[in-house]
Every structure is written in C-alpha cells, then in structure tokens.
Amino acid sequence: MAVLRLALAQYDFPVGAVAANTAKVRELMARAREGGASLAVFPELTISGYPPEDLLLRPSFLAACQEAIQAIATDTNGLAAIVGFPHSVGEVYNAAAFLRGGEIVQITHKQALPNYGVFDDKRYFRPGRTSAVAVVDGVRVGYLICEDVWQAEPAAAAAAAGAELIVVINASPWDDAKQAEREEVLVARAKETGCALVYLNLIGGQDEVVYDGGSLLVNGDGSIAARAPSFVDALLWADFDTTTRTLQALDWPSVPDTSHEATLYAALVRGIRDYIDKNGFGGVLLGLSGGIDSALTLALAVDALGPDRVTAVMMPMRYTSELSLEGARGQAERMGVEYHVISIEPVYEAFMGQLTPVFAGKKPDVTEENLQSRTRGVMLMALSNKHSRLLLATGNKSEMAVGYATLYGDMCGAYAPLKDVYKTEVYRLSRWRNLAEQRKQGAEAWVIPPAVIERPPSAELRDNQTDQDSLPPYDELDAILARFIEEEQSQAEIIAAGYDAATVHRVVRLVLVNEFKRRQAGPGPRATTRAFGRERRYPITSGWK
C-alpha cells in the first residue's frame, strides 16, 4: 500500500501582497516538510491574491508574481508543491505551478474561465487547453484550478492521463448555498473518473466577497472523507491511499456549531475584520440607534475587532423612544465599547431655521425625516474623520432593495456588514448570537437587548412610526424580494405563487427605481447567491419594468 501525505494550506493570501504571500508560502512549506508531507498545496492565485482585478494589467505586478514563484521554487528541495499564480507569457493565464527539486517543473492553466456572478476571469485571462498530471512518490496526481472541476471535461482528461488523485485549488467565494453545490459537483466528478479529489479553498475577506475555506476530501467512490471548517485558517494534513483511492484527514480542526446562522455570522465577522485590518484602519465607528440592525452590527464589530477598537454613538431626536435610549446604552455598556450620546436636535433645528423660508408654502413630508438622518450622517462622518475610525453603515438588504434608506444619511459608511443580509435574517442572527452567549454565560446572558429584538422595527423619524407604515411585513417583503432578486422570477410568477398582486407590483417597482441609491452604497460582504454590486448589475436608466 502506497500512502501520499499532503499538506493543504487553507489560509488567506491577500490581494496584491506579493511579498507577504511569498513569505507565508515559504513558511508553510517548511512546516509541511517538517510534518512529513510529500506534497504541499496552495490556493488559486496564491501569489497575487484573488481577485487581483486590474492589477493584472500592470506589467510590474505580473513581473513581481513571476519572480515570486521562481523564488518559491528554490525552497522545494525535499518537497513538491502546487502553487497558484498569474502566468504572463505574452498573454496572461490563471496558472498553477508544480514545483519540485528547486525548480518549476510544470505549469498548467485554468481551462474554464467563469464570467458570471462575482467572477470576471475572461476580462483578464486566456483559457488553458490541457489538464496536467505530475508524479509524486509514485502517485499520479492531476491538478485543476477552481472552475475546471465544475465542468466534466478537465477532470476526465486528467483521469485519462492516468491520474489517481485530482487536486483542485480554489478561490471560491462563500454564499449560503455554496457548500452544498460544491459537494454535489465533487461527488459527481469522483464517480465519473474514479479518482479521489482534494478540494482546497482560499479563506478570508476581500472587499465584497468572503472566502470560507471549507476544503473537502472526496474518495474515489464519491463519498465525502472530510470537511474542513469554514472560516478557520489551518494547515490541513491528509493521507491518500493509492490502493483504495481513499483520503484520510489527520486531526482537522472543528467548530462546535455548523448551523447556517453560525456560518453566516462567522462570514460577516471575517468580512469586517479583514476589510478593516487589510486597509490599515485602527477601528470602527457606528451609529447605535436602539434598533436591531445597529445592535447586530455592533455585536459583529466587537466580535471581529474587540471592544477597544469600536465606538458607538447614539444621536437622539425628539422622536427617539426611551426603549431605544436604554437599549443602546445597555448594549454599549455590556459590550464594553466607547459610547457617546450626542443629540441632533439643535443641529437639525439650525438646518430647519435656514431652510424654512425656502420651504414656505410646502407641508412637512419625508424631506424633514430625511434631514434628520442626514444630520446624523454629517456628525458620524465628522467623528470618523477626527478619530480615524472607519464608519460602518448598518442597513440591511431588505432596506437597500426597496430604497428604505436615506442617501448621505443612514447610508453613510465605508463598509456595510449587513448589506446582503435580509431583515428576517437579521432577526435570526440576533437570536442566534444571544443563544450562543447564553451557552457560554448562562440563561440570562445576552449581547443584543431582547427588547430590541422583540419591538416593532422603526426609523423613529416621526411620532409612532413603524417600518410597516411604509413597507409590507418583513416576512412577506423578504419572500418577494428573494424570488425577484435571487431566483429572477417575473412578477407574474411571484403572483402565481400566491402573493398579493398589488404588493408584488409595488415591491418590484421600488427595487427597480432605487438602483441609483445602491450604486452609492458602501461595499459589504456577499452572503446570498445574488448580492447587489458586482454580482447583480442592473441599469439605473431603463424602460424595462
């Protein structure tokens, strides 16, 4: 029986950090060698980070990546390695280098270039033509790059070339449906080819996407041998048995809760932490309104960065309820963050004093409500500038979808953690976070004030206001939005599913007419299969209704 030991680097390799990524590869290769691995495997575009976007148009960047892969090759004595990098040979390829004996032995190019969703590979790369196979300790190892395994042909070609094991290096962003889809595809490839598969995925936050890791081992008969935890950095050890074509995970880390809520929460935390740290910000600031969205955002920020790097500001107005004031103060104190209360009343009145002569003859309307929100935005931005703390926007996907948000008001913020999280999901996450705290601290523990979770949601911009004055109930609204946005259903299809026709027409109209707002929103981590931004791109000006 021949056994091949692999070391799989489920780590973050940040975009553009060529020198740091190179150093990390070398350090991990040393650990792999010390641990007795024969093959170390690294994610897609390890050297450049993924996606490098228009950095790939810069010759100096491509040259630095080429120098890095050559330097890494010199460290491979006693170890083979597969490392992703951008390969520039007149044209640019998304490549994987097979390194051994101090040399670049072989280079293969990604064959299937995705150009859907968040992917834009065809803008930058030319497709490869062949599947590569290398021999490591007598084992024939095929290796593919990400999208290649989602098509049948590249894996079939590797198997036809004699591969016993197929290694797939990936930069596959997380969403709430992705892991099930990955497993279905990998099981199909294993059954088609008879090859065992190693699926190694990148981890970390990069602007509007988060990579979860979630690496997989699949036996030659299609059974799942092991699942790596999501959002856990680790060097994963595995043994491949050539006789049975089976894989064995060796002491892989685990997480206590693998529920949807736990994984989504971990994705949002990772998104915040990596966005703040990779961009060099000392901390964050947010408006804590006493509502559930800002309460969840505060919890996420503290879990991501620690309380010392988070500042919360309550900015009351005459319409702010005592429940909001108590909820915000209680949460800020419980979480140990810097907390300020700054009334917007005098600033708002000053604005109105200047504007009233020009408003003469017009009744109060949403203008005055929006002015309250914009007053808060001005003050938060001033605090952000003065204290060098990045402002987090607290709006959710339901609000962003229908435009229930104020430009240059509550939409102020350089990063929006809940941008792709529906309101109903905000409630589920908040309840889950409290339950997680109770498991650790006891039945009375909470992070998000229970009264804030149970109250009817309100923007508190006028007396006795609730969100449902302007919107359908969130259960109904989110169901319609998910059908229209994620599932791309027509209005007729949604109505046929049993939803009120007038409500459907109104919701769809709000989605379409508020594209201009979303174009001006801060980035936020992708959580669903159709996030606003680079994944869902609708024209602002359009006659299609």
TrEMBL record:
Its EC number is 6.3.5.1. Residues 520-545 are annotated as: Disordered. Pathway: Cofactor biosynthesis; NAD(+) biosynthesis; NAD(+) from deamido-NAD(+) (L-Gln route): step 1/1. InterPro entries: C-N_Hydrolase, C-N_Hydrolase_sf, Gln-dep_NAD_synthase, NAD/GMP_synthase, NAD_synthase, Rossmann-like_a/b/a_fold. It holds the Pfam family NAD_synthase. Transmembrane segments: none annotated. The keyword ATP-binding applies. Signal peptide: none annotated. Residues 4-242 form the CN hydrolase domain. Keywords: ATP-binding, Ligase, NAD, Nucleotide-binding. It is an enzyme of class 6 (ligase). ATP binds at G287, L288, S289, G290, G291, I292, D293, S294, T394. L-glutamine binds at Y116, S172, K178. PROSITE patterns: CN_HYDROLASE. Deamido-NAD(+) binds at N370, E399, K517. The active site is at E44 (proton acceptor), K110 (for glutaminase activity), C146 (nucleophile). It catalyses: deamido-NAD(+) + L-glutamine + ATP + H2O = L-glutamate + AMP + diphosphate + NAD(+) + H(+). NCBIfam families: nadE, PRK13981.1. Catalyzes the ATP-dependent amidation of deamido-NAD to form NAD. Uses L-glutamine as a nitrogen source. In the C-terminal section; belongs to the NAD synthetase family. This is Glutamine-dependent NAD(+) synthetase. It comes from Dyella nitratireducens.
